[in-house]
Amino acid sequence: MDVEPFDDQPVPPVDVNHLARPGRSPAAWWHNTNHHPGIIALIRRARRILPGDPDFGDPLSAAGDGGARAAARAADRLLRDREAATREVSLATLQLWQALTERVSGRSPNREVTLVFTDLVGFSSWSLQAGDDATLRLLRRVAQVVEPPLLDAGGHIVKRMGDGMMAVFSDPATAVRATMAAREAVRTVEVDGYTPRMRAGIHTGRPQRIGSDWLGVDVNIAARVMDRATRGGLIVSETTLDLIEPDDVNSLGVTVKRIRRQVFAPRSSGVPTDLVMYRLKTRRDLPAEDDGDDLEAQA
Length: 299
Hints:
Blueprint: H1 16-19, H2 26-34, H3 37-49, H4 67-78, H5 85-105, E1 113-120, H6 123-130, H7 132-152, E2 156-161, E3 164-169, H8 172-186, E4 198-205, E5 208-210, E6 213-215, H9 217-227, E7 233-237, H10 238-242, H11 246-251, E8 255-258, E9 260-261, E10 277-281, E11 295-296
Parallel strand pairs: 4-7, 9-11
Antiparallel strand pairs: 1-3, 1-4, 2-3, 5-6, 7-10, 8-10
């Protein structure tokens, strides 16, 4: 029996007569059927037309909270044989479970969110001089004061990256307000006479959610927006700023200044050529966060 493929890649034919050859023990029949390349390929093709992520079960998609993800992690430990039909059937079931969970909750995996990236200005140079003990004390203290404003505002911390983090919010104005509170909280941190400065970049888009992580172009843009704050401060993309009501911007108590383009500088990788960024400054922003950094390094 030849299996009709769902795409251009041919599926190995399934020889039913060979699988059910007389004299073959049930155990041998099951082993050969379970590991037949044609059957495995057929199930994988079928997963492509089922609801949900057809690659559900890999390390990225199985990370994070949720019953289906926890079951996928358990299945990965139990079903070590990756070239088996039973594994593909199990993952297809979990794929449908995860898709149904997202549909019932009304949470689209690629909904519009506001992404926040932060890190500490000059942290690497300071930590090299300060040593591991002081560095660890600083990072713990920063986490203690930075994370509560973000979490209390409904943000979700996606990952922690040394002296920085990535967080996701459902509302851009809330993301900006919470990030400002987090930056203000960092001013209270002091370790061995050193007080760090936190920079942040905010961008709104529709990144791809894979398990507990967020990936895609909009994630890269958010990280590049933060990179523009070379001396510290808070920078947002025009996409984010346009989604915030003028009254909300006024209530933040900030001045909004567009970052000018530096004509002859090389373009920043990963940033659209038409991306516009704005610096949001409060009265307490340090002089080092002023106009000297307001040049966007792209043509």
